């Protein structure tokens, strides 16, 4: 377990460093936005300081593991500009998160996806030409009925439903559910 944790932390640090640098005019976050026909990618905008986002960490990990089994990808995107690579790695370790983490300190993904709060999910599906389209955006589940009103357990799982529909090539019944969480302070 210790070896896996250390290698995982190194991977997080590498992903975080790469996510904030530019090379040959292309953003290093672009692997999250590249795919093959039929690929499904989930982006979860999160913050290590948002209690609602942190309460959903076990659900993130469950969804990530399910997607791995299906050959799809799941990324945790730290949306706060003050999150460092070290803070992102500590957060992943503290919450036992094994998915790739991107530190989006320049808000490239935040702006591209028009994310507004943490947590906020975005489901992308890649067409026959390898171009992505956003098929779902919003809440992960109903663990929180409203701010400060947490249920004992979630009863509706909108992200799971959206991923299942996207993977099957189906349309998502409700493509946008207003997210509930901590506001992302936009860069000036």
Describe the structure using short key phrases:
188 residues; alpha/beta; Glutaredoxin; two-stranded antiparallel ribbon; 12 strands; 33% helix; globular; disordered N terminus
Q: SSE layout and pairings?
A:
Blueprint: H1 2-19, E1 22-23, E2 26-27, E3 40-46, H2 51-55, H3 57-69, E4 73-78, H4 85-94, E5 101-103, H5 108-113, E6 117-118, E7 120-126, E8 132-138, E9 144-146, E10 149-150, H6 158-167, E11 176-177, E12 182-183
Parallel strand pairs: 3-4, 4-5, 8-11
Antiparallel strand pairs: 1-2, 3-7, 6-12, 7-8, 9-10
Helix pairs in contact: 1-4
In brief, what are we looking at here?
The chain contains six helices and twelve strands.
Low-confidence runs (pLDDT<50, min 5 residues)?
Answer: 1-26
Structural class by sheet pairing and helices: alpha/beta
CATH class: Alpha Beta
The main pleated sheet reads as: 6 strands, mixed
Distance between the termini: 42 Å
Number of helices: 6
The residue fraction in helices comes out at 25-40%
CATH architect. name? 3-Layer(aba) Sandwich
Radius of gyration, in angstroms, nearest whole number:
16 Å
Using the alpha-carbon principal axes, give the shape. globular
Q: Average pLDDT value?
A: 85
Share of residues in strands: 15-25%
Total count of domains: 1
- Give the CATH superfamily: Glutaredoxin
User: How do the strands of the widest beta sheet line up side by side?
Assistant: 5-4-3-7-8-11
Query: Any idea of the CATH topology?
Result: Glutaredoxin
Total strand count, please? 12
Order of helices and strands: HEEEHHEHEHEEEEEHEE
């Amino acid at each position: 377990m210790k070896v896996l944790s250390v290698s995982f932390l190194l991977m997080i640090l590498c992903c975080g460093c790469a996510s904030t640098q530019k090379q040959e005019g292309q953003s290093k976050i672009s692997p999250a936005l590249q795919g093959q026909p039929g690929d499904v990618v989930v982006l979860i905008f999160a913050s290590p300081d948002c209690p609602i986002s942190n309460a959903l960490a076990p659900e993130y990990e469950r969804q990530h593991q399910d997607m791995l089994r299906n050959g799809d990808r799941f990324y945790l995107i730290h949306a706060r500009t003050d999150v460092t690579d070290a803070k992102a790695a500590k957060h992943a370790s503290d919450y036992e998160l094994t998915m790739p983490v991107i530190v989006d300190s320049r808000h490239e993904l935040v702006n591209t996806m028009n994310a507004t709060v943490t947590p906020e999910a975005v489901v992308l599906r890649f067409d026959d030409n390898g171009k992505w389209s956003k098929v779902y955006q919003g809440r992960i589940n109903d663990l929180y009925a409203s701010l400060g009103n947490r249920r004992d357990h979630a009863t509706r799982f909108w992200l799971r439903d959206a991923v299942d529909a996207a993977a099957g090539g189906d349309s998502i019944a409700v493509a946008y559910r207003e997210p509930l969480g901590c506001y992302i302070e936009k860069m000036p």
